[in-house]
């Protein structure tokens, strides 16, 4: 997602501003700080493994602290479990749009404002936005696996009919799976992340979560539909969403099957 980090923003795609020194640094940075994915996935149903490195812990803690600051509350649980509790809290006592606005503020607070302005001003316009879209795809795939699990850069079709390496495919989004609810995914992740990239970095983004297999396709360079028209909102609640199953048990009303928080 948007946890690109100040350092990571420097890791440009090959081709754009390719300076050898920068490249070497990027590789070291990746090898030392970020995690490795284990290749022995014998069982295809097994969750993709991702072993976090120290930079991942750094990102997690930075992100969580910003969330806790916004909410004014922190969980007692350490690590990822605590992060999910804090994310749940973001929904409590807020309307959906308030939750989305709070999440956008959190994402923005992770970056120096000047960097966002410069990116939007200098990089977003290059090559009709394709360079900026490919850059953020790379950086997202590189720096956000601690949050979402293994992901890879792939090609997506842009509205102008061309295809561009500005996609990120998340095999099985850890955040979606652990937060367990369509509403949390939509309001603390999908909508705010789309808004953040568009408004703060000048890069349109469409995120397509699949609630059956927890995959998520990021399409940088593609404008999302208006939130009310987004097909993801038609999805029923996940079986594992605790409030949704409670509601299902309490009522036979079909309306209750629609995810209320989404
Ligand atoms: C789940 O239900 C509890 C009370 O039953 C409520 O306080 C909480 O806000 C609900 N969470 C979500 C995400 O709707
Ligand atoms: C989501 O994934 C399932 C299982 O792979 C697939 O059957 C379904 O068509 C996908 N849904 C969408 C909207 O792509
Ligand atoms: C999950 O669904 C997406 C499409 O929504 C598909 O591209 C992907 O292959 C599916 N993954 C698995 C493991 O079925």
Automatic annotation (TrEMBL):
Q: Which residues form the signal peptide?
A: 1-18
Q: Which Pfam families match?
A: D27-like_C (PF13225)
Its lineage reads:
Eukaryota, Viridiplantae, Streptophyta, Embryophyta, Tracheophyta
Q: Which InterPro entries match?
A: D27-like, D27-like_C
Q: Which UniProt keywords apply?
A: Signal
List the protein's name. Beta-carotene isomerase D27-like C-terminal domain-containing protein
**Gene Ontology MF terms:** iron ion binding
Which intervals hold domain Beta-carotene isomerase D27-like C-terminal?
Answer: 146-226
């Amino acid at each position: 997602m948007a946890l690109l980090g100040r350092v990571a923003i420097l890791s440009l795609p090959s081709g754009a501003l390719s300076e050898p020194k920068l490249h070497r640094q990027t590789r070291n940075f990746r090898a030392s700080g970020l995690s490795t994915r284990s290749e022995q996935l014998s069982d295809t149903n097994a969750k993709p493994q991702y072993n976090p490195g120290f930079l991942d812990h750094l990102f997690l803690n930075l992100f969580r602290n910003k969330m806790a600051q916004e909410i004014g509350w922190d969980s007692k649980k350490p690590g990822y479990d605590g992060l999910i509790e804090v994310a749940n809290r973001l929904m409590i006592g807020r309307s959906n749009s308030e939750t989305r606005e709070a999440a956008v503020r959190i994402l923005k607070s992770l970056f120096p404002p000047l960097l966002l302005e410069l990116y939007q001003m200098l990089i977003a316009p290059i090559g009709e936005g394709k360079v900026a879209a490919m850059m953020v795809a790379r950086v997202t795939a590189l720096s956000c696996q601690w949050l979402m699990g293994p992901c890879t850069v792939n090609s997506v079709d842009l509205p102008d009919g061309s295809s561009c390496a500005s996609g990120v495919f998340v095999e099985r989004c850890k955040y979606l799976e652990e937060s367990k609810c369509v509403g949390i995914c939509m309001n603390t992740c999908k909508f705010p992340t789309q808004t953040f990239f568009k408004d703060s970095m000048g890069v349109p983004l469409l995120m397509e979560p699949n609630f059956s297999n927890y995959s998520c396709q990021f399409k940088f360079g593609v404008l999302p539909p208006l939130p009310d028209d987004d097909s993801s909102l038609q999805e029923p609640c996940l079986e594992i969403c605790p409030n949704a199953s409670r509601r299902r048990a309490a009522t036979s009303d079909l309306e209750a099957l629609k995810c209320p928080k989404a």
